[in-house]
Amino acid sequence: MRALLQRVRRASVAVDGQSIASIDTGLLLFLGIHPHDNRDIARWLSDKVLNLRIFDERGKMNRSVLDVQGGILVVSQFTLYAETVDGRRPNFSLAASRDVAEPLYEYFVELCRAKSNHVETGRFGAPMEVSLINWGPVTLWVDSAERKKNRVAHEERPSAHGTPKTSHGLRPSGTRLSGQADKGKA
Questions:
Q1: Burial 33-60 (b: 16+ CB within 10 A, else e)
Q2: Where are the domains of the chain?
Q3: Which residues sit opposite 60 in a β-bridge?
Q4: For the chain, what is the largest distance between any 2 Cα atoms, rounded to a whole number of angstroms?
Q5: Measuring CA to CA, which residue among 5, 3, 1 is closest to residue 139?
Q6: What is the pLDDT of residues 90-105, one digit of tens each?
Q7: Would you state the pLDDT for residue 168?
Q8: 60 SS3 class
Q9: 3-state SS track over 65-84
Q10: Catalytic center residues
Q11: What is the rounded distance in angstroms from the CA atom of residue 82 to the CA atom of residue 60?
Q12: What is the pLDDT of residues 46-76, one digit of tens each?
């Protein structure tokens, strides 16, 4: 799952020219869903975005949207999974199909509503007009795939000597401390 978060003073969404949802201070959250996403990922992402400390407290980002009792406007956006490297037309093959994405979107919204009374939504799959007044601006990208990469990166982080460590803290076999010369070579 991918979420594009924007801290806002106000945000609203309209379908067919009619406003269907709006929030005041809070988060505008665009949500994209991958075919391999599941409820565990939805739980992780909802917890992450609801508790990110991106609201000011005395000049420092130290409060979450829950802490400030801010609104949350969740808008489905399959285009967050666009591939744009090749050609000039975006490829959306990495976005989940509607039959996979819609139930996960609804579940994600349900998780948010379980923790906040200020959750609004767009209309899944509909062409929407989204308006916002960005505050900061503060715009963040949260991708559930990154948590796997970060785990691997932390497990293989360099030791104090500059050599990578395995998850158990030992250097992989065959690596030397930096500055250590090969024996038997001039």
A1: bbeebeeebbeebbeebbebebbeeeee
A2: 2-145
A3: 57
A4: 79
A5: 5
A6: 999 999 999 999 999 9
A7: 46
A8: strand
A9: CCCCCCEEEEEECHHHHCEC
A10: 77-79
A11: 34
A12: 999 999 999 998 889 999 999 999 999 999 9
How many Å apart are CA 9 and CA 133, to the nearest integer? Answer: 6
User: Residue 105 CB: number of other CB atoms within 10 A?
Assistant: 26
CATH for the 2-145 domain, from 3.40.50.620, 3.40.190.10, 3.50.80.10, 1.10.10.10? 3.50.80.10
**The two structure tokens encoding residue 69:** 């009792």
Burial class (CB in 10 A: 0-12, 13-18, 19+), 20: middle
Q: Tell me: the pLDDT tens digits for 105-131? A: 999 999 999 999 999 999 999 999 999
**Which pTM does this prediction carry?**
0.80
**Tokens describing residue 161:** 């000597």
Which tokens is 16 given? 């067919």
Calculate the dihedral angle through the C-alpha atoms of 39, 43, 49, 53, rounding to the nearest 10 degrees. Answer: -170
- Please give the Cα distance from 48 to 52 (Å, whole number): 6
pLDDT, greater one: 93 or 186: 93
CA–CA gap between residue 146 and residue 3 (Å, rounded): 12
**Could you say which DSSP state residue 24 is in?**
S
**Per the structure block, which two tokens stand in for 19?**
């406003």
For residue 90, report the phi and psi dihedrals to the nearest 5 degrees: -60, 145
